[in-house]
Structures are given as C-alpha cells and as structure tokens.
TrEMBL record:
Gene: thiD
The organism of origin for this protein: Sphingomonas montanisoli
Entry's Gene Ontology molecular function annotations: ATP binding; hydroxymethylpyrimidine kinase activity; phosphomethylpyrimidine kinase activity
Protein name in UniProt: hydroxymethylpyrimidine kinase
EC number: 2.7.1.49
Catalytic EC class: transferase
Entry coiled-coil feature ranges: none
Amino acid sequence: MSIARILIIAGSDSGGGAGIQADIKTVTMLGGHAMTAITALTAQNTLGVTGVMPVPADFVLTQIDAVVSDIGVDAVKIGMIGSAEVVNAVADRLAALENIPIVFDPVMVATSGSLLADEATIAAFGRLMDIATVVTPNLPELAVLGGSAEALAARHGCAVLAKGGHGEGADLTDRLVIADGGSTEWTSERIETRHTHGTGCTLASAIATGLGQGLKLSEAVEKAREFVRASLLAAPGLGNGHGPMGQGLVR
C-alpha cells in the first residue's frame, strides 16, 4: 500500500498539545506516515513552557539522514527549529532533496506566550524560506518576518499562507500568496474556544500531508483548514489554560 511519508522537523511538547505530538496525530489521522527529527525537548503544559533543552545540530541531521536514507520522504514539515545553527544545518541538508515539498511554520512564540525562538534564530529563518514550498506565519510572525505576504513571497520565491487567527472580528481570513503575486483567500467564522494549543502545528502538518499525497497547494490548504476547524470543535477540554485540540477525535 502506498502511503505519504511525512518528515516532521520540530520540537517535542510534553503536554501533547503542539509540536511533534500534534504533528504526528495530524499526519496519522489524515492517512500519512509520520517520521520525526526532534530539534528540542520542551517541558510544557496548557499554561506555558517551563523548560527547553535544545538538540545539537549534528543529531538533528542524524535523525534526518536516518529517515531519508531508508524510508524516503514525500513532504517535509518544519516547526520549532531550536537555534540558528540548527536552521543553517537543516537548510543545507534539505536543499539537497529534489522535488520534495517543504512546509515551514516559523514558530516564534507558543500559544501560552512563551518565547520559542531567539533573535538569531529568527534572523536565520530566511535560509528555510528560500527552500520552502510554503511558509505559514500568523499575523504577528508575518510582521516580524517582513510585513506583508507579498513581500515575503517575492523575496524568498515561496508561497506564503498568512493566517488570520490573530486578527479582530467574528470572522477570520487566511490568505495564500504565491511568488508571482497570485492569491487565494478563505474566510470562516471564528470558533470561540480557549483550546487552541497546536493550531499552527496542525495546519502546517496537514498541508504537508496533502502535498505529500499529491494535492495542489490550494487544495492542501483548504483540506488542512477543514481539519483544523474540526479538531478545534473536537477539543477534549484538557488543562487549565490553552488546551490541546482533538485531532485524534476527528472522523
């Protein structure tokens, strides 16, 4: 049986709400095979992050090489990246992969507000955007990276999905801009819930799964948005803060 092989390069969330844990649940529920290269261990729950232990760049590459050399990869999702050194090492390694879609979620701050990337790491994100198929910043991240989706897409030659969840109003709009300036928008009614931990991770992993399964980018984004919304509605209500979504409960 053919199955899309999705390599996830991201940090581990001990609370299971975001990061590698959310990624694995998402890829699995959407019919893909999830593989991982863990960039950092975090101690966190629904209230915040209490500790971060980075994984050395050499071992991140060892994990990537182990997967690529044996199982193979149909798409890559990049999330929390850990350090500028890891950014550069991963960018060099992934640049050698040909015709493999790459989804980069430029994680800077956790849902709880905890910082997950320092200034040097954020400054190095350009290396990953240069090789990405699509970058998925939320509105605050977009402001830090360049101010507009059009500018970012033109500068790095990638598509940019500007996520509207941090905007105001009863509706939110996600806007996909491709490098030549074309764009597609999706507007949906906002789901009012505090259980939003892992929305960005889930969306990016769902897009990567769709691309690995052969969907066009706009189709992958549309399917991913539907999965995120279903996961928000299925959230089990765990924890006293920003609880995890219900990816595993989506049918």
